[in-house]
Protein 1
Amino acid sequence: MFARARTSGCLALLLVGCTVIGGVDEFRDEVEDKDCPGQPCEGPLCPEETCPSDDPDGSTGIGGQGPSADPDEVPEGWIGPVKHNVSTTEPTCTAPYSLLIAVGHTSVSALPADCSTCSCESSGCAATLSFWQGMDDCQDGCAGSRTLTPSTCVDVGTVPSCPSDHPKYSATAVTVTAPDCAPSSQQPELPEVTWTTVSTVCLATDADASSGRCIARAGDVECPVSFPARAVLYRTIVDTRGCTECGCTPGSCAGTVELYDGNGCGVGQKKASVAVPFADGCQTIGGNPRALYTPDSSADCIPIPSTPTGGVTLRDPYTVCCG
């Protein structure tokens, strides 16, 4: 039995015990590796080997580091070393940074929604003619009324209770009724969302990445002091683009009423043309009254256009910090 000390680099081993096998001297390590307390030295003469670990090749990045990251340099909760790639198209992970851990974007371009044209279904305007049957002074005789359908020559007719010896007619007022309006449904189209840049974060998978000086973690967080260069990418979007609903404003149903004395509403039979609505008037019609109501073109339901709403926002941040 003998003992000897062997120093190789910073590794110092104390070897005791010697056996002779087949005439060849071989040494067996029977003491602990002084650089790795609590672990036996391995190999015939304990060459310069690293201490065993749960992740001997460092390939998993578990515990906040990749294959060659110094545990003292990768803060708790971070992973590294990583490489942050930015391009106009999606970059790929290449050795020694071969493991893709995040894909995202730093900015987004999204045009507003394209709103469909709004329209209105209308029950139509209506007008009511108030008149006198009797004398043409709007005082003596019998009061009556008729509903006027737009663009239709209406026979004013007679008042059933009025004596037949009252053959003349006079118009005293015209009131209008606004239509019921039903707006069309909105059918927006959403332009495609485009990205200004695409980012990937790739984790080192072998020891050739020893020069890596970037770390990463999920969330929008501040960088450690030793890794001051900060970039945040976003992995998802929320698209809330749309349009307000279509609406309608009932028109005024303003227009004109033409009064005729004859069996039709011919040009030669016109007695008067009055703007409606009107009240407290007295317009002589004649003995064979007809009325033609023509609303203005803008008097019916007026569509209320839709306007774009919402937008595209970036979500699910991921932070990369480099030293």
Note: The longest strand covers residues 229-239.
Protein 2
Amino acid sequence: MTQTQSAASPPKTPRNKRNDEGMPLSRTNPVIEATMMLVPIANLAAAAVTAVLAASSGRNMLQTWSLSRQHANGSLPATEIMIDASDSTNEVVSKIQSMKRKELLELYMSSRGPQDLSEIAGEWNGHLLDNDSWIMTAVTGLLSNRMFGMGRKWNGKQFGKENDPQLGINRFHPRNANTKQQAEQSTITPTEHTFDMILRPSKLGARDMSLVLDYTKYQFPLSLWRTMMDEVRIVPLDNGEPRVLIGLGYMAWSGGRMNSSPFVLYRAVEDARDQV
């Protein structure tokens, strides 16, 4: 009986079985094997990036909250840029670009809001500033230049649009302007993303007056930019003229004003650095 059952059993497949061309057969597709190995690595990398972003955002929010509380209590020292009468707008902008996020927030809180919209009407060039860490600064650049600008580098704002002093719009470098020279030679300044301009107290610090830019009405419901807000103030230069503005941009889904990103604006007609 045992011999009969043994004889009826199917023969075992040899481990070195080969195909018709004489090549050894693989039990598992190598592409599938490689993919299965990469999946946990990708998941681990994504988790690490998420953790770093969360930690950096938390640091920014704590920093903003602390400075805002100090300013509200009157314990935050005023931060001003002391310049000589001969200093150009370019030199002022350079000083601001060298500041860290903490200093930029202090500068914003010690600056003043416009008295009326006509004071800052016109076109302003702009630069993104330090956002406390390399990863947050890089994310801000990605959002502003690649996504918000659809591949066009952000280049400031226009205050006053289509004969309506209460509307503004963002300015961008042309998509093919890859160098400073190309940007200077271009006569076209693309614009996109309209906003309402509202003078009202800021919710940061001592609730001083700010120019608030509200994008809500001009974005569709599922847009990333629907909850975007900017707050802008005039940098207190020696002569008090509104040549340079300091701003904070934020969105509700990324932490709101507590996780705001600083930027600087200067009049487009000024002799200021226009990096691309």
Note: Confidence is low (pLDDT under 50) at residues 271-276.
